[in-house]
Amino acid sequence: MKNIELLVLDMAGTTVDEDNVVYKTVMNAVNDYGYNVSLEKVLSTCAGMEKLEAITSLLKEIGGNEDEALPIFENFSDHLKEAYQTLDVKPINGVEDFLISMRSKNKKVVLNTGYTSEIALQLLNKLHWKENVHFDALITADDVSESRPSPEMIHLAMKKFNITEPEKVLKAGDSVIDIEEGKNAGCGLTIAVLSGAQSKTELENSNPDYIFHTISEAEKIL
Question: What CA–CA distance (Å, rounded) separates 201 from 195?
Fold first, then answer.
């Protein structure tokens, strides 16, 4: 079995259940500008991407006006702040025990996300997850210059914990972009989970090493 020392785990849909609120908010923000996109379309196009980039890609795909990406993104950010105030956020089934178990085995756990740190911290506060209890570090879109599937966030996580061999890193996420990010970094293991944005058929296209229902199932291979 591979000797995994670092787990880089996506947040929404992988460790955190926020009821797809982000993608629903993207959908509403885009549709406020006179478009008519479905949640399904948003999930298949935008999952795992930094959100301004996601909105730009979506507009491109539906033949919309890409100049509207920035105002739509600002509209999205305002609505998301409001949605998060009232949102009931919970850990995905089994994840909290999984994180604590991994850390007890001296593995480092890094949460990474295409969100801003402001949004990511809001989620963590709602979950009452603490650094050095549930995870070792948080890396967000704000910490890097290139968004996923660039491996920059994983490289930063490795640097933080002096891990030089990417084979010792596991990357898990609920979108093709997460798996591509892991492969671009040369990770020893890439795991796709069905607890979030994309379907098994979509995820299979990225050839992850495993597809699990939830990340806690990875316990059996670690």
Answer: 14
Q: Which residues pair with 89 in a beta bridge?
A: none
pLDDT digits (tens, 9 = 90+) for 153-200: 999 999 999 999 999 999 999 999 999 999 999 999 999 999 998 999
Task: Write down the pTM of the prediction.
Answer: 0.91
E strand or H helix at 87: none
- In terms of Cα–Cα distance, which of 71, 65, 75 is closest to 35? 65
Whether 102 contacts 222, CB under 8 Å: yes
DSSP category for residue 115: S
Q: Across residues 12-29, what is the average pLDDT?
A: 93
Helix, coil or strand: residue 85: helix
Q: Residue 16 CB: number of other CB atoms within 10 A?
A: 24
Helix/strand/coil (H/E/C) assignment for every residue in 136-203: CEEECHHHCCCCCCCCHHHHHHHHHCCCCCHHHEEEEECCHHHHHHHHHCCCCEEEEECCCCCCHHHH
